[in-house]
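Troubleshooting: if your tokenizer reports a length mismatch, compare your output against this known-good record of 193 residues.
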Amino acid sequence: MSYPVFAAGDVLGAADMNAVGLWRVTGCTVTSAGGTAATASNGVITIGTGNTSVTVNNAFSADYQNYRIVIENTTTNGTASHQMQLNGQTTLYYNAGNYFAWAGAFTNFNPAAAAVWTLSANVATNFYTHAIIELVNPQKATVTSGYVVSQSGNGGYNAQLLNSNTISSTGFTISKVGDTMTGGNIRVYGYRD
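Known-good structure output:
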């Protein structure tokens, strides 16, 4: 077996704990715009009511090279797409992928450079949206790449992500332009090397 198995009462040594590959980042702090404030506790960011954006700080550090961000059960107040921007980086975001309606065809896209990454297709009002975002090297002064897989009330969205700036980021902002999001959680995990 290639992963550690623990039993009640086990004493966990360094070798056991160092074999664990994915760790929740617990030092995150949060600010939000619009509505009631988002909160952070032990690495769980809870989106407020009617937030237009949620900024997660202290998410990326030298502790990990690669990250997973999970957004779950956020409800939308309109149909705008979710967007993401790395702290300190306002240009050169690229998405390439496809989206689909549950009863429709795939639509491929490859837009020009933008100020944000798109994380979801236009969503249905009052439906939950979920997303998994994988990022490589967001905390390093090098190109950041990754991908997003998301689902909302009216379809799915899959995209490769690239930011060709060579700027180090310690956090990110999730936003909905001209729209709001309510509830749900954001968690950041680091992959141990």
